[in-house]
C-alpha cells in the first residue's frame, strides 16, 4: 500500500510539473521570481520531447508500482496517461516534436501576454 501511495504521489508531482511547464509563465503576474524556476523547467520539458527521452519520474513511478505489486508501464508519462486521450494511435517522433513545439509556443504566448499586460498597465496608469 505504501509503494502504491508513493507511486501515486510521483504521478501527481509529474502531472503538476506538466501543468507548471505549460501555464507557469502566468504566475509571473504575481511573482517576479517564477521565470528563474519556470524557464529551466520548460526548457527541460521541451528537450525531453525533442530528444525523444523519458522523464526520470516515469521510471521512478514504475519502480514504485512494481514494488507495490502492480505492473509498471512502458514508454513515458505522456504516452501512458495523456496520449490515449489525445492521440490514441500512440506516440511517434513526429508527435513528440509537436508536443515540444506546444511547450515552446504556449510559453512564448504566456510570457508575451504577461509582458503586454505589464506594459499595458504601466501605460494606462500614466
Description:
With 126 residues, the protein is mainly alpha-helical. The protein has one domain (2-125). The chain contains 5 helices and no strands. Helix 1 packs across helix 2 (34-51) and helix 2 runs antiparallel to helix 5. The radius of gyration is 17 Å and the shape is elongated.
Keyword list:
single chain, 126 residues, mainly alpha, 5 helices, 75% helix
What gap, in angstroms, lies between the N and C termini? 60 Å
Structural class: mainly alpha
Order of helices and strands: HHHHH
Please give the domain count.
1
Give the C-alpha Rg. 17 Å
Helix fraction? over 70%
How is the main sheet built? none
Question: What is the topological layout?
Answer:
Blueprint: H1 2-23, H2 34-51, H3 57-67, H4 77-86, H5 93-125
Helix pairs in contact: 1-2, 1-3, 2-5
Amino acid at each position: 500500500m505504501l509503494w502504491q501511495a508513493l507511486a501515486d504521489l510521483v504521478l501527481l508531482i509529474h502531472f503538476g510539473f506538466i501543468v507548471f511547464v505549460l501555464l507557469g509563465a502566468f504566475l509571473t503576474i504575481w511573482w517576479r521570481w517564477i521565470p528563474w524556476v519556470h524557464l529551466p523547467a520548460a526548457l527541460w520539458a521541451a528537450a525531453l520531447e525533442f530528444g525523444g527521452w523519458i522523464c526520470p519520474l516515469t521510471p521512478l513511478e514504475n519502480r514504485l508500482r512494481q514494488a507495490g505489486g502492480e505492473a509498471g508501464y512502458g514508454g513515458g508519462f505522456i504516452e501512458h496517461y495523456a496520449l490515449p486521450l489525445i492521440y490514441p494511435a500512440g506516440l511517434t517522433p513526429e508527435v513528440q516534436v509537436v508536443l515540444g513545439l506546444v511547450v515552446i509556443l504556449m510559453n512564448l504566448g504566456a510570457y508575451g501576454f504577461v509582458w503586454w499586460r505589464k506594459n499595458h498597465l504601466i501605460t494606462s496608469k500614466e
